[in-house]
Design a protein that fits this description.
- The strands form five sheets. The protein has a five-stranded antiparallel beta sheet with strand order 12-13-14-18-17.
- The chain is elongated, with a radius of gyration of 30 Å.
- It contains twelve helices and 18 strands.
- The protein is an alpha+beta fold.
């Protein structure tokens, strides 16, 4: 074989090897990756027939949003929807339209009225919160689905368009007459449901027509972040959301709140139903092996989190630096230990965690002393103090480890050697100790 022939053969062999290795590097990781299940179209929109009347429900993907009087809502301060706060919601279903007289009559025949004969496709009104509870109870028994009223947070998230929100002032647009019936367009009377443009999720009349009862008792908004919030324990008034055909445009934006006693029944208050399917496997996140480390971007900076196996596993962050504290809180920390922020009060720490939650769009909280100690003892995190070349601290820790190992043998002889506390971990033993460094905890599944 000539030299030229050998060169050509060598060239083609090398080329084949190159593409073979490249293909393996690309396809093997893709094949090994575990994909999350996709919710099929059949579960995106569920239609059930109730005594011959169709009831259509739209699925709302879980997500986070800022609830209350955000900048895109009111051009004037309204105390009832302040402060705006971060909310996290699980997936749920909500009705495409308000409950009509036709549907209400089919479930509650004893409530038949002249309106149900003349205006079957108009939204039902003159129903109290207690009437609505009886309605969803019967609807549950007729369909086998766990119907209920939406919580206030669920109502607002759906009205804003969920994860598809375009931050409109009204449900589906910034022009109220195209998406909702108010006193400027309704003629002071309710209209048939589903006649105007829907919002981003395909929901109709969440602005105007009739206002809608929610599950919650009225309570002022609080600074803080909670998953799936509902004021369901006690109160005096129940929440009503959404403007009505009797309201002016200025009082029809999505953050407006109203509240009435549960016995109240008015011509402008109706109902929209919701339900959750907690046992549906397609609504549960796929089980994946937890990553040993995760990163969250907070104010253009990446904060490292380390996985801590426990009865309730969690991720714990690196110690918060003074630089990140200044970026988030817009002020310097009271004290500074090397590059770390220390000396903050418990309230300041909680406020910092809430602001970081908004930035990262996940639920974060301040790590407890027990969580920090558990992660440190397992060798998963190393405090900055321990990273310093402090011979006294290192010698004390070395002596403590040696005594712990020796105690295993002395216990066989009936006595245990006293083991001193780790000098580094002592700073984490007190919950109210402002001198200990700040860490955040993240539960990705919450």
């Amino acid at each position: 074989m000539s030299t030229g022939t050998k060169f050509v053969a060598y060239f083609f062999v090398q080329r084949k090897l190159f593409w073979l290795i490249t293909g393996l590097l690309v396809t093997v990781p893709l094949a090994a990756r575990r994909h999350k299940p996709v919710v099929p179209d059949s579960l995106q929109r569920i239609e059930t027939i109730v005594n011959g009347i169709p009831l259509r429900m739209r699925r709302v993907e879980g997500g986070s949003f800022v609830m209350g009087g955000t900048a895109d809502q009111a051009d004037r301060d309204i105390y009832s929807d302040k402060p705006a706060h971060l909310v996290f919601l699980s997936p749920y279903y909500i009705a495409e339209t308000e409950v009509t007289y036709e549907l209400w009559k089919s479930v509650m025949p004893e409530h038949e009225s002249m309106h149900s004969k003349l205006y079957p496709n108009h939204p039902v009104s003159y129903v109290s919160w207690h009437d609505c509870q009886e309605f969803v109870r019967r609807l549950d028994s007729l369909t086998g689905l766990p119907f209920r009223l939406p919580t206030e947070a669920e109502w607002e998230f759906a009205a804003r368009g969920g994860n598809k929100s375009k931050h409109y002032r009204y449900a589906g647009g910034n022009q109220p007459d195209s998406v909702g019936w108010t006193n400027m367009s309704s003629g002071n009377w309710s209209r048939a449901v589903g006649r105007l443009h829907p919002n981003e999720l395909g929901l109709y009349d969440m602005t105007g027509n009739v206002a809608e009862w929610c599950q919650d008792w009225y309570a002022p908004y609080q600074i803080g972040t909670q998953p799936d919030p509902c004021v369901c324990d006690s109160g005096e008034f129940r929440i009503v959301r959404g403007g009505s055909y009797d309201d002016c445009v200025a009082n029809s934006h999505l953050s407006v709140r109203r509240w009435y006693t549960p016995e109240t029944s008015r011509h402008f208050i109706g109902i929209r139903v919701a339900f959750t399917l907690p046992d549906d496997p397609m609504m549960q996140p796929a089980e994946e092996e937890p990553a040993l480390t995760r990163k969250l971007r907070i104010h253009s900076r990446k904060l490292n989190f380390t996985y801590v196996p426990a009865e309730e596993p969690y991720y714990i962050s690196d110690e918060i630096t003074a630089t990140l504290w200044r970026k988030i809180m817009q002020k310097r920390p009271p004290e500074q230990m090397s590059s770390l922020a220390v000396g903050m009060s418990r309230g300041e720490r909680a406020r910092f965690a809430e602001l970081c939650s908004r930035e990262a769009e996940v639920l974060l909280r301040v790590a407890t002393a027990e969580e920090i100690v558990a992660a440190t003892e397992k060798g998963l995190i190393v405090p900055l103090k321990q990273k310093r070349t402090n011979k006294t601290v290192q010698q004390a820790q070395r002596s403590r480890r040696n005594l712990s190992r020796l105690s295993v043998f002395t216990e066989m002889m009936g006595f245990r050697l006293p083991t001193p506390d780790d000098p580094v971990l002592l700073q984490y033993k007190k919950e109210d100790d402002d001198s200990r460094p700040l860490r955040l905890v993240w539960h990705p599944k919450k």
